[in-house]
Structure formats: C-alpha cells, structure tokens
Automatic annotation (TrEMBL):
This is 23S rRNA (Guanine745-N1)-methyltransferase. S-adenosyl-L-methionine binds at Y67, E93, G94, H181. Zn(2+) binds at C5, C8, C21, H25. CDD domains: AdoMet_MTases. One of its GO terms (molecular function) is metal ion binding. Pfam families: Methyltransf_11, Zn_ribbon_RlmA. Coiled coil: none annotated. Keywords: Metal-binding, Methyltransferase, S-adenosyl-L-methionine, Transferase, Zinc. One of its GO terms (biological process) is methylation. Residues 87-173 form the Methyltransferase type domain. It comes from the Bacteria. Residues 3-46 form the 23S rRNA (guanine(745)-N(1))-methyltransferase N-terminal domain.
Length: 267
C-alpha cells in the first residue's frame, strides 16, 4: 500500500515516528500509532466525523456480537490471499479490520481511514500492527493502483477515488442498508418513514456478487438500547417523545437488513 502526501501527492516514506515526502512535507505519528493526513483546509469543522461518544457507543454495540451475521458475510466474501492488501474506508473505531484479522488476515495487510480522529485513535489502540490514518474518503491519500481490496460499510466515498486507488481487477465490498433495515424503529420515530432505496451502481465497477443479509436481534437492557440509539442518526432525528420512551425500555427487538455487494474494478 503506497500512501501519498495529501499536499503534493508524492509518495510518503514511512518512518518510525514521521511520514515524509521528498518535498519535505512531514506528518508525525501519534502516540497511539496513527497518522493524520487530513489537511486543515479540508476540514469543515474543528473535529469532523463521528464524536468519541458515538464511537464508544458503537464499539460497545458491535463488540457484543449483535452484527455477527454481517461479519460472517463480509469474511466469506473477503478471503485472504498471500500478498493481498485491504483498506477499510470509513473504518470508524476499527471493528471490521479486527474481525478480518481474527478470520486470518495479517494485521499488516489491513489498513483503515476515517475522517474522525477519535475513531482512528480507538482503532490504532486496538490493532497496533495495522496502519490507521485520519483522512477524507473523498480524497484518499493513496497512490494510484496501490491496494487490492476496499471495504466500505455504510460509508460515503467517491467512485472515482475508489477506482483510482484499486489495482486492476481489485474488488470493492460494499455494505448498505436494505429496504427493511430497522423498519419498526423508523416507523415509530418518523411521521413519514421511508424505506432505504436500493444501493446505486458504482461507476467504474462491475457487480460480481450481491446478497441480502437479514436477521433479527434483541437489545437487552437500557444501556444497550441507549448505545444503539446513540450510534445512529436516531440520536437526534425523529420523534423525541418516542425516543425517550424507547430509552426507558428493558428490551427492544429489531430486524437488520443489509445489502452486501462485491464489485470488480474495471481498468
């Protein structure tokens, strides 16, 4: 994987404490091991991306294994082959790279980017031998043709950027919400709930596999329900009275619905 300078786009030489290009732009490694490659002029707020509180709630939810069926679908479609490298776009606190490592991917073959510094800090702490970088998914700090696989779970990204950084014949594993995802909850919170639209085609990619991953799950206890609401847009959207009522429940039954696609890069 060839990281490039976000200022001049030249390759970065990776050192123990600093990443540097030949134009002498340098980027220090944080104590946790990650590197920030998001230029200040590209930030739209002081701390872009998900907050630490939202990420911690998501971490507790995911580590409880509730989305295990989705993990199994991802792992089945991303078997490791020697020499292959994978980038998780919008990796958050690093849950999916950790699951891939447990499934047999070497930590050094994995990397993750996210615009949230809090998320990247958490990811780097949990997976020291994997490269995690604060960066925009719209302008990935990677050289052309420098990675074999991309993983995108509910994350925005530019089609042209994904095509640029992938090797010819490389793959994108894309996970998007299916039409019935959390439908009872949406119906309760919104006056006019809408089903999720089918995922759009990704320009420059050919569909290879598409499957639906649907499963029920149950949140047990108020803390689990609060974490789930906090990690989603439901934390600030929808009927606040209904949300408060949900937070007082001792359990909540829901249905997950994901569309999982593997697409091949056309080059």
């Amino acid at each position: 994987m060839i990281w490039q300078c976000p200022v001049c786009h030249l390759p970065l030489e990776i050192g123990d404490s600093t990443w540097r290009c030949t134009n002498r732009h340098s980027f220090d490694c944080a104590r946790e091991g990650y590197v920030n490659l998001l230029p200040v002029n590209k930030k739209r707020s002081k701390e872009p991306g998900d907050s630490a509180e939202m990420l911690q709630a998501r971490h507790r939810f995911l580590e409880a294994g509730i989305y295990r069926p989705l993990v199994e679908a991802i792992v089945a479609l991303l078997p490791y082959a020697p020499g292959r490298q994978l980038l998780d776009i919008g990796c958050g606190e690093g849950y999916y790279p950790r699951q891939l490592q447990e499934a047999g991917w070497p930590a050094q073959a994995l990397a993750g980017v996210d615009i949230s510094k809090a998320g990247i800090r958490m990811a780097a702490k949990s997976q020291a031998d994997t490269q995690f970088v604060v960066a925009s998914s719209v302008e990935l700090p990677l050289a052309k043709d420098s990675v074999d696989h991309l993983l995108r779970v509910f994350a925005p990204a530019a089609d042209a950027e994904m095509q640029r950084v992938l090797n010819p014949g490389g793959s994108l594993l894309d996970v998007a919400p299916g039409p019935e995802h959390l439908w009872p909850l949406k119906s309760a919170l919104y006056d006019e709930p809408r089903q999720h639209a089918p995922p759009k085609p990704v320009e420059g990619f050919v569909p290879e596999v598409e499957l639906r991953c649907c499963f029920p799950f149950k949140l047990q206890g108020r803390e689990a329900i609060a974490d789930f609401l906090a990690m989603t847009p439901f934390a600030w959207k929808g009927n606040s009275d209904v949300r408060r009522e949900l937070e007082l429940r001792e359990s909540l039954k829901l249905e997950a619905d994901f569309v999982v696609r593997r697409l091949i890069c056309k080059k």
